[in-house]
Amino acid sequence: MPYAEPFSFLSLRFVLVIGILAIIALAARAPWPGWRLALHCMIVGIFLHGIYLGAVFWTIDHGLPAGISAMIVGLQPITVAIFAGVLLGERVTPRHWFGLILGLVGLLLVLGPKFSFGGSGITPLNIAVSVLAMLGQTAGTIYQKKFATGAPLRTGTIWQYVGAVIPSLAYAWTFETFSFTWSGELIFAMAWLVLVLSIAAIFLLMVLIREGSVSRVSSLFYLVPASTAIIAFFLFGETLNAATWRDGSLRNCGKDRNDHPRRKFLKTHYYSVSTWLALADMFCSLKIRTQTSAGRTSTWICFNCLSVASPMAAFMG
After folding, report:
1. Which residue among 61, 177, 193, 232 has its CA within the 20 to 30 Å range from the CA of 147?
2. Average pLDDT over the chain, rounded to whole?
């Protein structure tokens, strides 16, 4: 990361989220969970934010391409489906398994040819840490569904980030210097991650986990690798080759196989994704003609808005 060390950045991000949510909760006089439920929320935060985000930031900082990182983390729907059946008693239908396996095939098609032990950043250690990130996200999702769905949304999320800041701050205190190179890009990235992802997107995820089966909610994460690869194409100049597009197509087909047409929630999401893919194709054409910093920034904003708007439209529809 050019402007901040990864865990110092995450620690500041989590502290800002805690402060903003605390002000909102106090102003709204939101109810607070009891200590037992608050502890459950903290454990969710350690897994879902601390371990997951920390491991992802660490691998990116150590050279793993963002698209590859997202593809490994994209295994989460498979692991959630496995553990949801065992730990939560959720029934995963053959149709759902077929879709999940189809997405896994797409993952292997793109990851296999790129896996090497050279200097590309795809190293055994980076892969192992990415797998840790995926398992952290899986554990956080399962734990939230089993133990913390009764927590109030605003105050429960505060306790999540209190838990998340513990491992990130411990790592930063031990191995980093808390140095920041303040710039417009860093401030914008921090504001975006705090407000849109750490608050708005996590609120939506918590509601989705509370209202639906975690295996179906997790299948939405099949959209992450494709969107991440496209964003990395614009921001970092990473290559979008035929294998990447083939992988994205298979993974999104796998996700779509899990969409029951009679469920308004999933049907709305399907049409949102179709619109997203059409706009993504338009922006890929725009990349050929737009090379300026302003052009990249505006394109990045559009992609992030679409990434957040798609599940939001599905939920609100």
Report:
1. 193
2. 74
Sorted by where each begins, the domain ranges of the chain are 6-316
> Distance between CA 246 and CA 86 in Å, rounded?
32
Q: How far apart are CA 83 and CA 139, in angstroms?
A: 9
Task: Output the six-digit token pair for 60.
Answer: 């990116």
Contact predicate 194/53, CB 8 Å:
no
pTM given for the model? 0.70
pLDDT band at 286 (very low <50, low <70, confident <90, very high): very low
Q: What is the mean pLDDT of residues 22-31?
A: 96
pLDDT confidence of residue 107: 62
Phi and psi angles of residue 90, each rounded to the nearest 5 degrees, phi first? -75, 140
- Counting residues of the chain whose pLDDT is more than 70, the rounded percentage is 62
Report residue 228's pLDDT band, with 50, 70 and 90 as the boundaries: low
- Return d(Cα 55, Cα 48) in angstroms, integer: 11
Interatomic CA distance for residues 256 and 253, integer angstroms: 5
Cα atoms found within 13 Å of the Cα of residue 127, Cβ hemisphere only: 11
- How far apart, in whole angstroms, are the C-alpha atoms of residue 234 and residue 264? 33
pLDDT at 291: 37
Instruction: Based on DSSP, count helices (H) and strands (E) in the chain, helices before strands.
Output: 15, 0
pLDDT tens readout for residues 187-224:
998 999 999 889 988 898 888 888 776 766 776 666 66
Q: At 4, is the secondary structure helix, strand, or coil?
A: strand
Work out the number of other CB atoms within 10 angstroms of the CB of residue 290: 14
Give the span between the Cα atoms of 21 and 155, in whole angstroms.
7
Helix axis angle for 124-147 and 76-83, nearest 10°, is: 40
> Nearest 5°: CA angle at 245, between 244 and 251?
90
158 φψ region: left (φ > 0), alpha (ψ -120 to 50), beta (else): alpha
Query: What's the angle, vertex CA 51, arms to CA 215 and CA 159, rounded to 5?
Result: 85
C-alpha distance across the termini of the chain, in Å? 37
